[in-house]
Amino acid sequence: MSKKHIEECIRTSLEGYFKDLHGTEPGGMYDMMVRVVEKPLLEVVMQHADQNQSRAADWLGLNRNTLRKKLLEHKLLT
């Protein structure tokens, strides 16, 4: 799957979101999008990194402590 395909999936989902609003103006979309994308991103990366936080942090371009904080926020640490 290419970056362009991922972008198109997001674009299509956002168009559906606006359609479902039936003209109502949205609020807080940026935070909403970060929340709904960040958790599955972290889940999949951690799975492929065999739960190795250092490796996952490298792949994501994050500091390991930042990754740990995000994993805790999303309740992804056991």
Entry keywords:
mainly alpha; Arc Repressor Mutant, subunit A; 4 helices; 73% helix; 0% strand
Question: Any overview of this molecule?
Answer:
This protein is mainly alpha-helical and 78 residues long. It has one domain (3-73): Homeodomain-like (Arc Repressor Mutant, subunit A). The protein is built from 4 helices and no strands. The protein has helices spanning 3-21, 29-48, 53-60, 64-73. Helix 2 packs across helix 3 (53-60). The chain is elongated, with a radius of gyration of 15 Å.
What does the secondary structure layout of this molecule look like, with pairings?
Layout: H1 3-21, H2 29-48, H3 53-60, H4 64-73
